[in-house]
Design brief:
It is globular, with a radius of gyration of 12 Å. It has one helix at residues 56-60, and strands at 5-6, 12-13, 20-27, 32-39, 42-49. Helix content is 7%, strand content 39%.
């Protein structure tokens, strides 16, 4: 992470956290976005809600929070 943020489940993701992206799922009826990643060699799921009062600002500008690294 290049900028700290808090997801839907109130998990703080600090600067320097590293993930390997796997996939996303979108739940339209709740504006929910589930991010599937590998972190510390374990599958992790982080949830977001694409609503103004929740994590819409993070999701709309996600590239300022994470940095893509290609090996």
């Amino acid at each position: 992470m290049t900028k700290e943020f808090v997801d839907y489940d109130y998990i703080t993701h600090p600067v320097g956290e590293i993930w390997t992206f796997e996939k996303t799922n979108f739940l339209p009826y709740e504006d929910g976005l589930t991010l599937h990643v590998i972190q510390h060699e374990r599958n992790q799921v982080y949830r977001f809600q694409w609503r103004e009062e929740e994590q819409a600002a993070i999701l709309t500008d996600f590239e300022t929070y994470v940095l893509e690294i290609n090996d």
